[in-house]
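Record type: monomer structure entry
Structure origin: computed from sequence
Chain ID: A
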Amino acid sequence: MKINYILIVKWGVSKGRDTYGYTTCTLKHEGIKVGYCSGGGYDMRGTVLAQFMSREFWGSIKMLDPSLHYGIYEKGNKKWINGSCGLSSMEHILNALYYERKTLAIENNIEVWSISKNLELEKHVLDLKEHSKNDISNQIA
């Protein structure tokens, strides 16, 4: 399995005037901030991962059925993902896109994650779909 993305999660404490003392969570990819949240009372890891996923995988995510994936919401013609519902829900969405997240390291206030494409799973699912099409065609004929 090839690692496609290395992500760094950094935990901190806000020094802002109105948010002083709040927990902060920053997600970086290749040194660029790709997710940020602060406060508490919700899944901050899931939130920053959802922000990254929205940027990287939006074309694929918008094709998923919200009724099958908790964390994808739809109202009218608008669709979005909300990671505050949990890291595991975001991982479920990643898995539906044939990716998986792993924690590579945790030290002090830093976590290192990898996001990898699971080519074996993707090939297996595509083989199953092709097999199902052939079965249906044979039943009709």
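Annotation 1: Helices lie at 44-61, 87-96, 119-140.
Annotation 2: Residues 2-140 form one domain.
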